[in-house]
Amino acid sequence: MQTVQSPTAHLPQVQEPRNDGVPLDLDWVASARANRSAIERRAATIAARRSVKKDWQAAWLCKAVACIDLTTLSGDDTADRVKRLCAKARQPVSPAILDALGMKGLKTGAVCVYHDMIETAVAALDGSGIPVAAVSTGFPAGLSPFPLRLQEIRDSVAAGAEEIDIVISRRHVLTGNWQALYDEMAQMRDACGAAHVKAILATGELGTLRNVARASLVCMMAGADFIKTSTGKEPVNATLPVTLTMIRAIRDYHDRTGLRVGYKPAGGISKAKDALVYLALIKEELGDRWLEPDLFRFGASSLLGDIERQLDHHISGAYSTANRHPIG
């Protein structure tokens, strides 16, 4: 077996300039459209294609691992659970598998937790270079008083979070109050300081793909470093049509401003084959630069277990049971 090389290993590892945002352009927002039938046809062509195989598939799966925000957002989270998750983030795939693939040093993109677990995660990840991401602003509904939401961001940054996943007020989108959404997002971005901010749109609650496109643009104009599909708590989370709508908004924003904004699908992505589909869509629509962890993340936990199982099959030729690849 040949040593697996990451599909974007040739790219320089540069630090992307942050998205400082631009003034709200309501004409640009109003011009955003989403042709649902065309979007669904395009999304269907990606999922229907024959996937990459053998060493190429293993390489793409390793790329997916590097882009995972390994997440635990449960009411029964404990310090020990978070510590185990952080250990998994440091060593996401069995050393024996990584040795066989020639992929030593692989780790996940981040660990995502609630505010109360930030200090535990920071301590557990010390020296690893893996950032801690915290969900904030009254996650998942985002309906707590606005001053409290801003203070929650500041508290999470002070506790050591380098990335903040905020939730927007869906009512601003549903009522078309784009100025209110812009102002809210800009204040949240300011509260984050040096920490990168991911704006969660909760797309399953926005009604239409047109609303998704417009909300994506407004959040980017207000300075979001990433736009993210979902909290993972809605009935409908990440889908390919929503993904296509959001990444085309990202492409439009980059074309007009020269600024790159990241993308994070979250919720419902649990199979390795699904991760390959999302990576292929990103590559074809945005290009190789967006396949690096500073511009693309999966919000997931169970996805990692299935990827490790597929990599084990690539090495051994036999499928192992899921309990051999625990998450935490």
Provide key terms for this protein.
TIM Barrel; eight-stranded parallel beta sheet; 8 strands; 328 residues; alpha/beta
Structure commentary:
The chain has 13 helices and eight strands. With 328 residues, it is an alpha/beta fold. The protein has one domain: TIM Barrel (Alpha-Beta Barrel), CATH 3.20.20.70. α9 (178-192) crosses α10 and α11 (240-257) packs parallel to α12 (272-285).
How would you briefly describe this protein structure?
The protein has 13 helices and eight strands.
Work out the strand percent.
5-15%
Query: Can you say what the CATH homologous superfamily is?
Result: Aldolase class I
The global form is globular
Q: Helix content range of the residues, please?
A: 40-55%
Which second-level CATH architecture applies? Answer: Alpha-Beta Barrel
Write the layout of secondary structure elements.
Blueprint: H1 26-31, H2 36-48, H3 54-66, E1 68-71, H4 79-90, H5 95-101, E2 110-113, H6 118-124, E3 132-135, H7 146-159, E4 163-167, H8 170-174, H9 178-192, E5 196-200, H10 209-221, E6 226-228, H11 240-257, E7 262-264, H12 272-285, E8 298-300, H13 302-316
Parallel strand pairs: 1-2, 1-8, 2-3, 3-4, 4-5, 5-6, 6-7
Helix pairs in contact: 2-11, 3-12, 3-13, 7-9, 9-10, 10-11, 11-12
